[in-house]
Amino acid sequence: GEDVEQSLFLSVREGDSSVINCTYTDSSSTYLYWYKQEPGAGLQLLTYIFSNMDMKQDQRLTVLLNKKDKHLSLRIADTQTGDSAIYFCAESSDYKLSFGAGTTVTVRA
Amino acid sequence: SAVISQKPSRDICQRGTSLTIQCQVDSQVTMMFWYRQQPGQSLTLIATANQGSEATYESGFVIDKFPISRPNLTFSTLTVSNLSPEDSSIYLCSAAGQGAKGYTFGSGTRLTVV
Prior knowledge:
Chain A is mainly β. Chain A is built from no helices and eleven strands.
């Protein structure tokens, strides 16, 4: 697998926007993903972006991809307490997923 | 996207024993994978479960320790053998169907070895 890096922690106030950043190394990645993991649960696919796109928006979620810098970000608008979780970015290569370490997002009132 | 039922959801096992984890997918999928998530860490791919043939293991994982079966396109098992406390982790299966949305995950099995 290739290296995928993320910041480990993010604290955000309820109602503000959250931005989670990720860098990856495999320039041949076809798709990049964001997954959410709540305590004691498996991984839930939040959104994904094809590598030839710059941006994808899905309700409160906006994904930005800078392929030149191999940088991926996830913006969550109007962050709610239910958004508290660990967020993993992942890249796909040769049908396998490589995951970052996960960013723990804590939403405070 | 496919829905995966994974069981057991958790287990506590004695060292030296084995645990078999099952994943059932509600539709036929091309590929299935097994991951390990050690406490506080990310997911590490153990192997790709191949239908009708031996699994393909990642570096650091061997068949004797992690035997995998995949008898058809909807079912796979992972056995964690000769358990030691270091095997205490969450184990997740994943299925990849067609297209980018195909990667879905089971709810995980939390294994504690005592």
